[in-house]
Amino acid sequence: MSAALVERPHGEHPLIAEANRLMERLPGYRVEIIGGQILVTPPPDGPHGDVLTDLLLPFATAGLHGTESRVIQGIGLWLPTGAADYAVPDLAVVDADYRDHLIENNCYDPVCFRLVLEVTSSNYRTDLRAKVKAYAGAKIPVYVIVDRKNQRLHVLTDPTGDGYENHRPHSPGEIVTLPASIGAEVSLDVTEVLKAGHSPTG
User: Fold this and answer.
1) Phi/psi zone of residue 169: left (φ > 0), alpha (ψ -120 to 50 degrees), beta?
2) On the CB side of 202, how many CA atoms lie within 13 Å of its CA?
3) pTM, full prediction
4) Helical H runs in the chain?
5) At CA 19, angle to CA 36 and CA 78, rounded to 5?
6) 3-state secondary structure of 121
7) Which one of 12, 77, 186, 193 has the lowest number of neighbouring Cβ atoms within 10 Å?
């Protein structure tokens, strides 16, 4: 993720101004504000990027990167959970007109997001806890987590309040078909996804 250009002054959002300063000082780090707290994540390892590339293929093959929707890495998602909250999911499926939904600080309205996906790194607790609450609060219909630490692929659907009504962890050996609400049928081989993201350091 490159440092974002600021569209307008953030006098009313000092946290955003501080987050942007951190991005300038720490190239390659991901900076987010969730629950009023600035979260700074170190650059991911190679397998993290490898699994993301592998995941792009089934989404694109299903036609999700076309005229109706787009598949984008590292797109900013404005969160309704706080005055300055935003997240930067590893991967998202968004409506093709997402550019019409820019809110602030290179972040877009959650209404145009069909799916967000996170691949865990050192911040795996954030992906499995804080972001579940944040994405549910933003009413993101589908949240997928590639949990490299625990070797599971989680699919969360039907946001309700600060959680998801349906949360299903999948193990190696399973084939997971994502909800049709994302715009196409996408099936993921859990074994292959986790294998691509395997890191010898855990």
Assistant:
1) beta
2) 5
3) 0.91
4) 14-25, 46-61, 124-125, 131-137, 190-196
5) 60
6) coil
7) 12
